[in-house]
Amino acid sequence: MGTIPQPGHCEDDFLMCLICRAILDAFWGRETNTVLANHRNLDQMINIWSTLMLRSPMLPPIGPFPTTDVFGVTVALTVLAKSLEPGHYKDKSQLEMMRKFRATFSNLYHISPEGANLRVALALNTSKTYLSSCPTHSLWFKCFSKGCLLWMGQVVKQHLAISI
Helix 95-111 to helix 139-152 angle, to the nearest 10 degrees? Predict the structure, then answer.
């Protein structure tokens, strides 16, 4: 963990390596103990359902996923490809630089006909919060970003402002 697998000579190999890395980052974007606890609890639930002779437990279907990119995978692949380029302070680009792709995509999405058509807002006094269907605001993309941060780390420059 910590490096992207090296692709072969084929462009498809490179894309497949990026897809595998993105999936691993999203999977490990949760704490290890959370993943293990979820696995243990699911096993216990299935055993109890079996004891109760429930034929169709209440598990949500886990596929198939849509064939369109509703989770922001394309932006995630772009971020991973950018991470292989030289950075300003290190030999590879840092996560802060790569996060700009997410912001750019989000800004473009929200001025597009699909994104600008959202009319759902939560308002309190003078502040409003809008709900978004932007792919880079998905739970998958959030887990991917956290997974990237965990294996890439974050370079802190003491003379710069505090990072968000």
Answer: 160
From first CA to last CA, the distance across the chain in angstroms is 25
Contact 102, 75 (CB under 8 A): yes
**What's the pTM value of the predicted model, to 2 decimals?**
0.70
Please report where in the chains the tokens 């959370």 appear, as a residue: 34
The angle, 0 to 180 degrees and rounded to 10, between the axes of the packed helices 95-111 and 73-83 is 150
Closest by Cα among 139, 149, 150 to 96: 149
Summarize pLDDT for 117-156 with one digit per residue, the tens: 877 777 777 777 778 888 998 999 999 988 888 877 776 6
Q: Which amino acid is at 123?
A: A
Q: Whole-angstrom Cα distance, residue 25 to residue 121?
A: 31
What three-state secondary structure class fits 127? strand
